[in-house]
Structure formats: structure tokens, C-alpha cells
């Protein structure tokens, strides 16, 4: 079963084990880590913005054009920013 290590703004790390197919947004929200996901994963907000570790970014498949448009609305963008609702956990992750 895949796991995600979330690093919260206060610097704490939280390891969350998830089923394949679960999105990063769902995992963070269900673990009460402050990921809102206001639109419920419909790609119509940027409240699930996450910064992916550079070593893992390529494995996420990269953002679609629609995701890039929504990321323009997110605060604190980085070169490895993604919307958590668009990253589904897989064996590669």
C-alpha cells in the first residue's frame, strides 16, 4: 500500500498510508492536515495546492493545462507545485 509523507507549514512530517487510486487531496484532508479541497476534487479551485518533493515530481505525471490554469490562483507556487486532487496514488508513487 502506498504512503505519502506530508510536511506541514510548521515543518512537521506526517506519514499517511493510502489505497491506490486515492488522491493526495483526499489523503491529506482525511488525515486532518489542513488540505481543504473546497471543490471536492473537481479542478475548480486551488485549495488543495501541494508542493511535491523534486525527487518525486516527475513520477506524478505533471500537470495538465487545466491544472496549470488553476495553479495560477494558488498562493506560494514553486516549480514542483501540483493540485493534490490531480495526483492519484499508484504503485509508482
Write up this protein.
This protein is of the alpha+beta class and about 90 residues long. The protein has a single domain (about 5-85), classed as Ubiquitin-like (UB roll). Helices cover about 20% and strands about 15% of the residues. The protein is built from three helices and four strands. Strands 1-2 form a two-stranded antiparallel sheet. Strands 3-4 form a two-stranded antiparallel ribbon. The longest helix is centred in the N-terminal third of the chain and has 7 residues, at about 25-30. The radius of gyration is 12 Å and the shape is globular. The mean pLDDT is about 95.
Total of domains: 1
What quaternary form is this?
single chain
Q: Which consecutive residue ranges, at least 5 long each, have pLDDT under 50?
A: none
**Which CATH architecture is right?**
Roll
CATH topology: Ubiquitin-like (UB roll)
Largest sheet, spatial ordering of strands: 1-2
Number of helices: 3
The tally of beta strands, per DSSP, is 4
Query: Which sheet architecture does the biggest sheet show?
Result: 2 strands, antiparallel
Structural class estimated from helices and strands:
alpha+beta
Cα separation of the termini: 10 Å
The coarse silhouette is: globular
Strand content: 15-25%
What is the level 1 CATH name?
Alpha Beta
Radius of gyration: 12 Å
Amino acid at each position: 500500500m502506498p504512503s505519502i509523507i506530508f510536511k506541514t507549514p510548521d515543518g512537521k512530517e506526517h506519514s499517511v498510508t493510502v489505497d491506490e487510486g486515492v488522491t493526495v487531496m483526499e489523503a491529506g484532508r482525511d488525515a486532518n492536515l489542513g488540505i481543504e479541497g473546497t471543490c471536492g476534487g473537481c479542478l475548480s479551485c486551488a485549495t488543495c495546492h501541494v508542493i511535491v518533493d523534486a525527487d518525486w515530481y516527475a513520477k506524478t505525471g505533471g500537470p495538465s493545462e487545466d491544472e496549470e490554469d488553476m495553479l495560477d490562483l494558488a498562493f506560494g507556487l514553486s516549480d514542483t507545485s501540483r493540485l493534490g486532487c490531480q495526483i492519484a496514488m499508484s504503485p509508482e508513487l
